Amino acid sequence: MATPTKQAAVSTVISGEAVVPFILTTRPDGYLPDMTGFDYQSLGTLEGGWHSLCPIRAGRDLALGEVIHAFKVRPADGEMLTFEYTAVKGALTADLWPAAFATFLQQNAQAQGLSAGGWTADGQLATSGCADLRLWCRNGYRAFSTAPFAGNLVQALACNDQYTAIEGQTLCLQVRDLKTQHLYENHFFTAPAKEWALALCKQINLDSKLLRGGVLEEKTCQVAPAAQGNAFWVAQGSELCVTLNEAEWWTGQDVDGGLALDADKAVQVWAYDAFSHRLLDSFSWTPSKTQCAAGKWLTAFGAALNKSGLGGWLQVGNKEKPASSTAASLWQRGEAIRVFSSLPGRDNWVEGPALASAWKAETDVALVTVRHPYSRVLLGQAVFKPDQLKDQSAWETALAEFIEKQGWPQLRAWRQAADGAADSAAAGTGDWRLWSPRFAGLLVELDNLGDVASYQDSMLDSRRLPIDTSAKAAGSSTSSLESRTALDFTKYLSHGALVVERCKGETVFVLSDAARARGYRVLNVRRCNDLNVISRFAPANMGIQFITASAFALGRGSKSAFYVDFDYPDHEAGGAEFEVGYLGYLDDNFLWPRGTAISFKAPAAPPAYTPNNHLCEDYGNTCGSEVFDTGGESETGVDPRTGLFHAHYPIATLQGLRGRGPVCDLTLHYSPLRGNEAGLGDGWPEQAVEGCGKTKKTLVTKRRPGQTVGA
């Protein structure tokens, strides 16, 4: 790595305005990408289900050995999982590789919440025999892939052809999460004498997993670097942002080589992304015994650091201010990067909480917690349990030794010297404190958890943050279907009920395409307690999670039975049996491992309803009982002929202009006798509903006014 030099005017100036190396886009104003197929699909509940936003299609053949990536991102902090598929012989053509790519994801990524598949005619979510392959991921995450098809490539940034880079100048291109600014890729680029954009795109295409650089040929779906018009392309739905700027060096801090180093202790330097706790690179150097003395170690340390991988972010000294044996400046570059070290020096260590702040008695338990300053990701946590300590001084000393044994490289427990600086040798008698390197910005907490005799691990639950729970869940995976109990279903039409034996995740039902085309909709799902279907000793603890017009979901539990009510057009009554939908299983690690077809035959329509008494049963005048309309009944009360309550709710009276034409009374009439002979009628007349041509149906029989479904 060349020693950094100060660069003067590195931008070309045209018409008095500084030109930057990027423009927002080469597309015309108002251009929007093609989002055909990028519709939202979901399975299961919001908390435990899966969803899909991105299709998997082929815009061209793959080259042998070409790599396609799939990504799963946790939106809370931008943490990303990456899966690589390499094109193999026998699956290179456009009609073969999408299925091979989807199969790879099913086998290698499904246990980590990412999968692929499309719906087959028999209700399976498979990688072959389906018309539309899609990328699926667990709810609470997002997924995208670099599958090469035109709709999947959108511009994130473009090169400015008006910008002229100076030969040897360094540019920095970064790829970050749009919302959390989590850094995924950082590329330093040294500009050549000519055609810097062409050279940059070639480097990006070699080094980047997320970007393609160059000009897009939409017919062949190829992105190739060109002399002009280059841009950077990301996957649609990826929510990535790209920045391109000049990378200059600036002084970060001064190093005092006149201080001695501790023998056999390594000096460490770290470069972290400022917004996430992603370690970009680190450096460790252990001095020899002869190099530990003051004025002996700085030159060797600087030479080793400048040649290391961290030298791209940090350099010791430059041509204007070269390092000496006793003093040097640390020069760093890069956007939103935290660089810090364990170098000695008064200004290099920031004091944290005093150990005494967590002390109340010599038998108290202390909790030490270290978190990232921005994302609050848990970096370290330990519980100190004292053992027969005689006083506060012994308790603090034991706690300091306990923290040092944790091996946290960016946290130290040292005494405070008389001048307020850190006493790494612990030779003094100052207060014990926690210390972290300057610019690390760590959040360090000390808590008292009470007496050791009453301590329980459950006390930590109240101190966990949501990010701790989601990170733990994201790291869990299961590699076998044996982790759950298989689904077992009885014959669906047996007693007209659906029986689920047991489920550890979610049981999901979706209507078939044929049922939707014929006008079927899910109307209701009800628990079945019929002893002919399910034993009275069965623990019916499986809950109904949600119901929509085209799906419903059942939660975890053991053997339970349910009735499902469908709404369908009247002409479907008495038709032939067909597959009305499919049942499948979901959990954290499995997406629809097998689907079960559900058959249904709409029962014959019941005989048409004819009122027995037009005078008392039909205040709504739906069956031609004009007698009550002319009788003037408009006051709410009890009918003396029947002893039953009736109600009348006036709304408005319509009449022609200037009082001409008949009077149209819009009063609503309530009758307890409408629709049956038991005094428990369905009440207010629903002329609009009666005229729509649809009635409510159940698996067992047609719903009639006042009748209990499934009885």
Structural overview:
With 711 residues, this protein is mainly β. It folds into six domains: 13-31 and 153-246, Alpha-Beta Plaits (2-Layer Sandwich), CATH 3.30.70.2150; 41-148, Alpha-Beta Plaits; 250-344, Alpha-Beta Plaits; 356-475, Alpha-Beta Plaits (2-Layer Sandwich); 482-600, Sandwich (Immunoglobulin-like), CATH 2.60.40; 614-695, no CATH class. Helices cover 11% and strands 34% of the residues. The strands form 13 sheets. Strands 3-12-17-15-16 form a five-stranded antiparallel β-sheet. A five-stranded antiparallel β-sheet has the order 4-5-10-8-9. A five-stranded antiparallel β-sheet has the order 35-36-33-38-39. A hairpin with a 6-residue loop joins strand 40 (637-638) and strand 41 (645-649). The longest helix has 14 residues, at 392-405. The radius of gyration is 36 Å and the shape is extended. The model is unreliable at 5-16, 471-494, 614-621, 624-631, 675-682 and 685-711 (pLDDT under 50).
